[in-house]
Specification:
Enzyme class: transferase
Radius of gyration: 16 Å
GO biological process, one term: pyrimidine nucleotide metabolic process
GO molecular function: ATP binding; CMP kinase activity; dCMP kinase activity
CATH topology: Rossmann fold
Distance between the termini: 17 Å
Number of helices: 10
Order of helices and strands: EHEHHEEEHHHEHEHHEH
Number of domains: 1
Oligomer: single chain
Largest sheet: 5 strands, parallel
Pfam families: Cytidylate_kin
Organism: Candidatus Pseudothioglobus singularis PS1
Bound molecules: 2'-deoxycytidine-5'-monophosphate
Length: 221
């Protein structure tokens, strides 16, 4: 049995950071499912494929030339699309918004499912996203859902962008975060919501280390 820990939650909640630390502490594999949706969105926009062209989108999904190269020493995951590094391009709000729009399409989600499930390898997997505990790894023994109030998440998202040298301001970021959450949570297919058996952690007033400690306690039981 390969253990899986799912970490789901809205944008800017700190899933990526927590998932990274927990995966490297446990020495488990890491799936950043958002990066798959972002890379797909980037690939589609580079090819000028519109959201309505389902046939072209599905063909792209099954032929997507996507590679993740992890550098555990620097806690960094590099993403290569068509053999070109796109890690920074993936992190922009423009790519995030586009990813969230493509993520509405049920048949597309289905065709990206196996690509995500293939990350489940020994000794274990930490999977971060929106539907890891509800759809992609429904049977996972460990499930966490992170939440935080929207103002705090916008602040965290802005800091994350600024740390990467991407400009932004708080009111714009707040709007973007709200819009994306609304779209991710209200969609028909695999909406953002906690799995029934997930441990819900409100991180609004917690440090990253405090969240990591709570998550590690769950896995170690
Ligand atoms: O986690 P992220 O910000 O990198 O995700 C970008 C978008 O991709 C998110 O707004 C919706 C979509 N997404 C999804 O629909 N399902 C996932 N498991 C992960 C991301």
């Amino acid at each position: 049995m390969i253990p899986v820990l799912t970490i789901d939650g809205p944008s800017g909640v700190g899933k990526g950071t927590v998932a990274n630390i927990v995966a490297s502490t446990l020495n488990w594999n890491l799936l950043d499912s958002g990066a798959i949706y972002r890379a797909f969105a980037l690939a589609a926009s580079k090819r000028n494929i519109t959201i309505k062209d389902t046939k072209a989108l599905l063909s792209l999904a099954s032929n997507l030339n996507l590679k993740f190269v992890s550098d555990p020493e620097n806690k960094k995951l590099s993403v290569y699309l068509d053999n070109v590094e796109v890690s920074s391009e993936l992190r922009t709000e423009k790519t995030a918004e586009l990813a969230s729009k493509f993520a509405l399409i049920g048949s597309l989600r289905e065709s990206l499912l196996i690509r995500q499930q293939r990350f489940k390898e020994l000794p274990g997997l930490v999977a971060d996203g929106r539907d890891m505990g509800t759809v992609v790894f429904k049977d996972a023994p460990f499930k966490v859902f992170l939440t935080a109030n929207v103002e705090e998440r916008a602040k965290r998202r802005l800091k994350q962008l600024q740390d990467k040298g991407i400009a932004g301001n708080i009111s714009h970021t707040l709007d973007e975060v709200k819009k994306r959450d609304e779209r991710d949570a209200s969609r028909k297919h695999s909406p953002l919501k906690p799995a029934k058996d997930a441990l819900i952690i409100d991180t609004s007033n917690l440090t990253i280390n405090e969240v990591v400690t709570k998550v590690m306690t769950l896995v170690k039981v």
